[in-house]
């Protein structure tokens, strides 16, 4: 592994580990730190490689779509269902189909409660 080539002593390991966590905290502060949920969700899509494009996970755009649904941006959700915006790879069809099934439910909840989320029990 590359880490074994970079770190040979405990002091080097400590420097590497501190740097690793500082970079991670910077990433969290930059993308995931917001006192307001709507402001946080409005920041989507997050630029980066989440997930790596080499994987076959096929969920590109789904997180963005759900965030937009929470913000009641149903135009975005409908575009997601129609595959009406560019992505690095095709949107995973079962995700688009599932969102299409949920859209009427989300719209109904939004009309009744102002949120797509089910009421708390």
Tell me what the structure shows:
With 121 residues, the protein is mainly alpha-helical. It has six helices and no strands. The N and C termini lie far apart (49 Å).
Number of strands: 0
Mean pLDDT: 75
Number of helices: 6
The helix content is 55-70%
Sheet with the most strands, sense and barrel status: none
Strands, helices and their partners?
Layout: H1 2-6, H2 10-32, H3 37-42, H4 62-70, H5 74-82, H6 93-113
Helix pairs in contact: 4-5, 5-6
Which labels suit this protein?
121 residues, mainly alpha
Brief sketch in words of this structure:
This protein has 121 residues and is mostly helical. The protein is built from six helices and no strands. It starts with a helix and ends in an 8-residue tail after the last helix.
């Amino acid at each position: 592994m590359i880490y074994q080539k970079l770190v040979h002593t405990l002091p080097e390991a400590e420097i590497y580990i501190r740097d690793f966590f500082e970079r991670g905290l910077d990433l969290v502060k930059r993308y995931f730190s917001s006192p307001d949920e709507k402001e946080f969700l409005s920041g989507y899509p997050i630029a980066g490689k989440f997930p790596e494009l080499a994987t076959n996970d096929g969920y590109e755009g789904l997180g963005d779509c759900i965030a937009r649904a929470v913000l009641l941006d149903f135009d975005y959700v409908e575009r997601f269902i129609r595959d009406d915006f560019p992505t690095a790879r095709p949107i995973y069809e079962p995700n688009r189909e599932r969102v299409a099934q949920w859209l009427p439910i989300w719209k109904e909840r939004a009309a009744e409660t102002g949120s797509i989320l089910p009421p708390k029990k």
